[in-house]
Fold each of these.
Amino acid sequence: MKWFPINKNTIALLFVIIVTLGFFIAGLFEVLDYLIIKFLLICGYIGLVAVAIFFAVKNRKNRLEDKLQDDSH
């Protein structure tokens, strides 16, 4: 049983939730100054940007070309 479908919207939403909760929890426990925490959060952000760029390029390839139609006949 699927509770929510796995598609590009849910993948992006999960990345945003993970990065946001990571910043919140790291700030709450005052561990944001540690290098490994910064590294993990920045990698999550880079992953989010990579997924966004991947789906943007994939969406551009699937678009129809703009071809003008002549309806004056």
Amino acid sequence: MGPVLYGITLCAGTFMVAGTVFDRNQQTLWDRIRAHSRQWSLFGISDESLLTELWKEKRDMIIERRRAILENLARRLDNMHLPTDIKRALWMVGEKLTSMSEAEKTLAGLIAINTVVFGLWKVPRLTSLMSQWFLHLPGSKKNITLLTSCFSHQEFFHFTLNMVGLWSFGKVVHDALGREQFIAMYLGAGVGANVISHVCSLALRRSRPLLPSLGASGAIYSLVAATAIMYPNSSISLIFLPMIPIQLGFALPALMAFDAAGILFKWRMFDHFAHLAGASLGIGYLTYGEQYIWTPLIRKIHESRSRREGNGSGRNNGTFMWTEARQPEQRNTWSGWFNKS
């Protein structure tokens, strides 16, 4: 029960932290709006004018932050005794980084973590340490590897495939959920997939050997599944059929069937339990998670903070529902995705 309780606690803590950060960010947006007008009323979640205003304020905050970063970079470069070409190159890099979207910055951060861990695996003297802390073995007492193994890859092909999947499918899910909810879902799916794989491997240890596992595949599968739910008619090319584009609404069931066959026939190349678990968690969260987990959580966090701060602070007293303003085309449609034409 230790790994299961650890996984549940870690996932719950991740969502709590993400929800708290989200609530604080939304409060900052609300304060900026109130500063621009003293005649705001408190609207409900369906009020499109307020959602639009929140979206504009967030965009303006990003623009202001980018301008401040570039101005600071320009001052620092002016004070450096470097050749003009090098200064120009550094400026171009800084400009590129600051022009990245919120989704790209989030994904770049996750990829950077995976890249560092992948690089550490290539240091021979660290192999023993990496095997101890970044490789999960069912039956081991190190529960932390349920998390650390989600960022761990030994083989270049495995690392590249997962990072391409993270960048490709992560953008779609990130734009739909927002940064905080995306990170909570991604980590939750990765840890959850490892916990399920751990339990299933131990349950079947008499019929198959216990094998160590690592990689972000469980979390990536959750992103693939989430994208398939939102855009079932979008096409991808599977690695074993690279020249044939397949609609996601058909590709996802095919991938899940492949992993089910892997479990049935005891294939050892991949952690098929984690793959199936990740896809199932992605489907479950995109179908029910925002309604039954994220939205109630944000409401509770906001109400709790409002009570602590008191109504005399001049802030919203909790009747406003904090939500990420989305573009109309980003709104999710969950049902009937296998049968859409």
